[in-house]
Batch of 2 targets.
Target 1
Amino acid sequence: MSETRRCPYCQRSFLSSRYRPQQEVCSQPECQRRRRADYHRKKIAQDPEYHQVVLESQKKWRAQHPDYDQQRRQANPKLVQDNRERQRHRDRKRRLQRLAKNNLALDLKHSASEAWLLGPKLRDLDKNNLASAQVLILPLLTSVASRADPS
Ligand SMILES: [Zn+2]
């Protein structure tokens, strides 16, 4: 028996398939692709065994296509640049979180990701667009900063 439903992706009404009465997503290829991708993501998050299988099959695929990453990087220099940028961002954020953790004088516990630091590094941070980490270096922290942060 068919039933009229509304597709959660494209918001269009559709008639559920007679063979799949539970169908919740319309049959357009794009909506089906999204349904599969969402299922995959959810399954990875919820099922460690499934996640493991996915990781292993990715590893196997990469072993069988050793040139893929390199070719991809060569074909997309921007990708490399973006990755480098993100890694720098992560490194810096980690350093600052460590710094916040190490600093017992200040109560930064409640805001590891929102630590505010002020001072000489500010311009540097500004330049690297660390807006999402919302970091502010306090002048008092400079000595701690240079001790905890070798760079
Ligand atoms: Zn749809």
Note: The beta strands are 4-6, 13-15.
Target 2
Amino acid sequence: MLKFVKVGMKMPHKRDAAARRGDFDEIYDEYKPEKAAEQASRCSQCGVPFCQIHCPLHNNIPDWLMLTAEGRLEEAYEASSATNNMPEICGRICPQDRLCEGNCVIERAGHGTVTIGAVEKYITDTAWTKGWVRAPKPRRELDQSVGIIGGGPGGLAAAEELRRRGYQVHVYDRHDRIGGLLIYGIPNFKLEKYLVERRTKLLAEGGVRFHANTEVGRDISFAELRERHDSILIATGVYKARDIQAPGSGLANIMPALDYLIASNRKGLGDAVPAYDSGELNAAGKRVVVIGGGDTAMDCVRTAVRQGAVAVKCLYRRDRVNMPGSQREVQHAEEEGVEFVWLTAPEAFVGDGTVRGVRAHRMRLGAADPTGRQTPVPVENSAFVIDADLVIKALGFDPEDVPALFDCPELAVTRWGTVRIDHKTLMTNLDGVFAAGDIVRGASLVVWAIRDGRDAAERMHRYMQAKAAGAVSEHARAATIAAE
Ligand SMILES: Cc1cc2nc3c(=O)[nH]c(=O)nc-3n(C[C@H](O)[C@H](O)[C@H](O)COP(=O)(O)OP(=O)(O)OC[C@H]3O[C@@H](n4cnc5c(N)ncnc54)[C@H](O)[C@@H]3O)c2cc1C
Ligand code: SF4
């Protein structure tokens, strides 16, 4: 069995069990205020806050670091939550090495970044336990209602912003739990599920109405939703897994990453998962090969380690420098015993009904493509076989065919299948229908989905204000005509 060498790893399920009981106090971490203040005080308050510029939410990082350093945590929380609907989640799972921390001037000067994400997490976790995080409470209720399709971070951020403004907000999701990939994609060891459930509970307390197990296009039509609500937000994410067409790809025990991760997450949440218990979607005792070099692949290899795999290898066709996943994640995976097989691509799967190995060949990096990225080229006569009892395909995701799923062929999409929006109004080509998150930008990040959700909420508010004003003036005009 592979051994964990990472220090401070948490047992995943205890906290979720407490969360299911609604006992969020029991799962309060033992924080170390001195450590947070010490980190926060390392910020040089430089004139040009590169960290803030490179945070998709443009969080006012220098301010909340200063407030934390001074022990003014409630104010730090007010500042951090002013621009972010889920700071404790971003603090945990943003690839900070590519965003805020990677651009910290102290990091650039070679002294090691201020640990911005950890401080953000600390501030908000403290805020939760102190009762500073409050449900949205609008100053006045409005008659207008909004239908949000998709309860991932994009949909949830929009729901909170619109509810705060007084709209009647309904979130529809095809899953049994709200949270999108925060619940069923990202593994528990990176993001404990009680954190997501606590957020949705708060929104429900604030009056957001959730309709789980409701797939738009199957359980309710898109046309009906448009009738029901004054405006609509499509925040459905991207779920069509990219596949490998290679000999042997129909063998048993070759599976898409999301099936594998959903089974693991469901198990962690206490659901009955027969395919996990039977071993079909469980890496225990197996030699596992994960194909891909993105964050999903990293989540699969690290999940396999935790399930007790005997060996975990990650095959990626480019080299370490050119992989899309976070370098920090690679480092964690390596520390946990994962072996990376760089510059290698699969050409066939071998086995006798069940997969027994992956035949792969070496690659080298050739000429750059129009984006400047070097194209991997196969090296002749370099084939070799890697033993495997379980192969997980983590090659990324494309959008589903939303116009077909919604029975709405007039909804415009781009040539990649993402929903097309006007980048000023954030509205699709259908009046009152907006879109946000992965379904607009393609597979991306939680922090970008939150940003999009916030921006869309703001534009939907403007749209509905204009609509209400139009309705009022229509009404006034009708009244005037009647009086005449
Ligand atoms: C395995 C994995 C790990 C990741 N790790 C990270 C990470 O560490 N850090 C990070 O920043 N990002 C990570 N990401 C990316 C991140 O999760 C996404 O960018 C983000 O969740 C997108 O948010 P969203 O709201 O657009 O969509 P989603 O989170 O995908 O939510 C969309 C929701 O829409 C629902 N839906 C879809 N179609 C319908 C329909 N017809 N009717 C009703 N509901 C529907 C879905 O059930 C889902 O709940 C990861 C992604 C994956 C797959
Ligand atoms: S939201 Fe993400 S990028 Fe922005 S400050 Fe927090 S951790 Fe950094």
Note: The pocket of iron/sulfur cluster (ligand 2) is lined by residues 55, 57, 59, 61, 84, 90-91, 94, 96, 99-100, 116-117, 120, 447 (CB under 6 Å).
